[in-house]
Amino acid sequence: MKPMFESINLSANTSLKVETYENGDYCESAGWHIHPEYELVYVKNGTGQLNIGPKKIPYTNGVLVFLAGNIPHGDFGNKDHDDNLEIVIQFGKDFFEEKLKVFPEFSEIQKLVKKSEQVLIFDKQTHQMVWKDFQSFREIDSTQRLIKLLSILFQLSKGGGYTPLFENLPMDNYRKEEIERLEEIFEYINKNHDGKVSVEVISSQLGLTPNSFSRFFKKMTQRRFLDFVNEFRTSKAVEFFNGGETTITGVMYQCGFNDPSYFSKQFKKYQGCTPSQYLKSRYQADF
């Protein structure tokens, strides 16, 4: 079974995406999926199974795993214990390949990042050593998160307490050109979601006709392009609401919707409730 492509939605003016999940939090499973971003995942406790590439690796009492982009995998977390916590950190390849490489002080981190192509599973001692660092991501701002991530990666690069899951990971399911083409589509959506997203424009950029573009996107994601864009836009709306913006019309326009009824319908379809219901549940005291 081919994995679904997942588009990682980075907020404006940030280099990484951080999601934290407690036991009772709702986390929509991506299932068997793939994305071009690096992923560092910390699971505090509980028992589960890592499904990465062709391998299935059980873990007990939590896990810490680091994998490069374009490696198919399943979800990592579990809900065994009430106090469990899962922190997922994702960042684009340009973060390391273009930005950090100019600093020789980050050479050890660069080596670790390169090794993540083999998928690194860290030992229990390392898992425990960095627990407080990961825990702090819930309370710190975006600048502090970047600094904290670099600190964690430096600790991991110096500790050496990991086991590579693969010597080499074959990527026979997808050709390199297909992955690069899909990355370009995701980048186009990310940059233009607040305005007009045009099949004609993006298909022309890729050297495809609109019909061949639609077939390619459906083949790679098992979804229609318009459905994908609408879900992306509603996830952006959730970001704005969570960031303190409570004017539905303003958020609607910022996400590329122009019709309140259509916005409400799409939001309910992909987020499970209307925008006003979402705001009431999140800011109950203010509504």
From TrEMBL:
InterPro entries xrefs: AraC-bd (IPR003313), EF_hand_dom (IPR002048), Homeodomain-like_sf (IPR009057), HTH_AraC (IPR018060), RmlC-like_jellyroll (IPR014710), RmlC_Cupin_sf (IPR011051), Tscrpt_reg_AraC-type_HTH (IPR020449)
All residue ranges annotated as the HTH araC/xylS-type domain in the record: 183-281
Example GO molecular function: DNA-binding transcription factor activity
Keywords: DNA-binding, Transcription, Transcription regulation
Top-rank lineage group of the source organism: Bacteria
Xref: PROSITE patterns: EF_HAND_2, HTH_ARAC_FAMILY_2
Matching SUPFAM superfamilies: Homeodomain-like, RmlC-like cupins
Domain EF-hand per the UniProt entry, residue ranges: 177-212
Keyword ATP-binding: no
PANTHER family: ARAC-FAMILY TRANSCRIPTIONAL REGULATOR
Protein name: Helix-turn-helix domain-containing protein
Native source species: Flagellimonas ochracea
Record lineage: Bacteria, Pseudomonadati, Bacteroidota, Flavobacteriia, Flavobacteriales
